[in-house]
Amino acid sequence: MKKRLTQSEEFEIMKLVLDKFLWLGFGIQSFGLYKMLTVSINEGLYYFVAGIVVLFLFLWIIVKEYEVMK
Questions:
Q1: How far apart are CA 32 and CA 50, in angstroms?
Q2: Rg (Cα) of the chain, in Å, rounded?
Q3: What helix, strand, coil percent values describe the chain, rounded to 5?
Q4: Residue 34's pLDDT is what?
Q5: How far is CA 50 from the centre of its chain?
Q6: Burial of 25 (0-12, 13-18, 19+ CB in 10 A)
Q7: Cα–Cα dist 32/11, whole Å
């Protein structure tokens, strides 16, 4: 028999997972900015765009999971 989570428990677990997405996206963008300033703009731009993609994935997951009900 499977144990069911309450809505608040599910939300707390979701916050932990999504927090990792935020840190990962921010870290990739920071590394890209560092590469832009030290190596070359083109090489850093690839990392920066990858960070943006991760953050848009984060946004998509939030909108998909928690729709605003009117």
A1: 9
A2: 17
A3: 80, 0, 20
A4: 92
A5: 11
A6: buried
A7: 31
Cα–Cα separations (whole angstroms), residue 5 to 11, 12, 60: 10, 11, 23
In terms of Cβ atoms closer than 10 Å to its own Cβ (0-12, 13-18, 19+), residue 32 is: buried
Q: What are phi and psi of 12, to 5 degrees?
A: -65, -40
pLDDT of residue 70 exceeding 60: no
Task: Identify the helix (H) or strand (E) that includes residue 44.
Answer: helix 41-65
The overall average pLDDT reported for the chain is 83
Residue pair 23/31 in contact by the 8 Å Cβ criterion: no
Predicted confidence band of residue 63 (pLDDT cuts 50, 70, 90)? confident
